[in-house]
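[Protein data]
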Amino acid sequence: MLISAYYRLARAGYVLAREGALSIVSAKDLPGPLKLGIWLGRLIERPSVRKTGHVERLNKALNLLGPTYVKFGQTLATRPDVVGPQIANDLAGLQDKMDPFDATLVPAILSEALESKAAELTELSPPIAAASIAQVHKARLVPANGLPRTVAVKILRPGVAQRFMADIESYYAGAALAERFVLSTKRLKPTQVVETLDRSARLELDLRLEAAAISEMAENIKDDTGFVIPTVSWDHVAQNVLTTTWVDGIPIRDHAALDAAGVDRKALAAKVLQSFLRHAIRDGFFHADMHPGNLFADPRTGNVIAVDFGIMGRINRRERRFLADILYGFITRNYRLVAERHFDIGYVPKDQSVDDFALAIRSIGEPLHGRTAQDISMARVLGQLFVITDLFNMQTRPELVLLQKSMVLVEGVARALDPSLDIWTVAEPVVGDWLRKEEGPLGRVQDIRDQLSIFAEAAQRVPVILGQAELALNDYHANKRPPDRLTRWALLLVAAAGTIFFAVATVRVLLSTS
């Protein structure tokens, strides 16, 4: 690890402490080393910042530290139950109200990125939104062949990639220190979590990949209703430039404007939550940055409009089934199912008790039923989960980090729109329908296809293994004695046994799924 990474990590800690951001952290329930760190950090807090609000300090600190820290603030902005309503409200300014970069740089950036196609973008507006990674301009697209139309042009901030990578490097340093000196964090696999964030950041910094993500999601949702995304203009896309159709809507966090336009906020909250679950469970491909700054409402249709597809999440079919079963288990209060799925997928070690784990899950699930979103403290629920998973030696799954973060964001948005939202009732149609389909003929066929694919891949390796075995045996006998008939018969028996094994296994799969 480079020394500069530790320097940036130390600087981040210093800035947070100096600007008073640590004052919003309650150290009461933290482990000893972290509690000591908070106490020491507050010793260097600037006296003058004590006269200002906590949020102002945190906003200032995050903006000073750069894009990755701003992203962290954006997540906190959707959790009033964790950081308080006043802090969450002020942190919302981090989502699309950052200072834009110098507008005089834009023409040269477009010309270099799009070459001759840049001339087709006319009437470029001043920045209408500036976030931590990029800023957006409204423009008129006048193509050589086609009708003029209004578009949104997203441009990466100059130098942001280098800054982002430097920040990620400091995250690696922090994760390594945590694993070494705070043993209780080891099971959370902080280094692997940072690796997941690193991959996500690299994808977010190439707008060609964001264009591809929009295209893939458009195919997935083409038959859906209630959720709308823009269309890409591929002739006007580059690594640092993305051009899409312009979408008009009311910012989803502007509740007063939604009410004035007659938008049904309860229905909107349900659409946000159900759309996310549909994308995650049905498609395995979801918008992983659904903070309020990226969501709008169409006042004419009541549809959700999503923008900014720089961070996308993807989970495989096994993980989608796990997620659906867990949610359905909580919805139907089948805590045994929830516990068994954790063991089946290997999240909880086999040496733990399924019955005890089911009892622990029940202690979390039962208080949630019959309660509205405003009655549920997600901070307390997350705290319980942490204690329980620690008790059962459950390991963090880095591949699900984005999903977990996104579920927190989406639940926060839906909760803000409709404080009386019954999360389980809204989720059941999506989760239940998918599971019922999975249990039906089409789901069984897919199971067979998946299993046969595994066996086919394994079968292809058998000749190679046998060839290597024969070479090894020939080499051995060359040094000992000439190959005999017994050796050849042994190889033939191995081959026959392998063939029989795959045949029997295939038949078992077909029988188990019939």
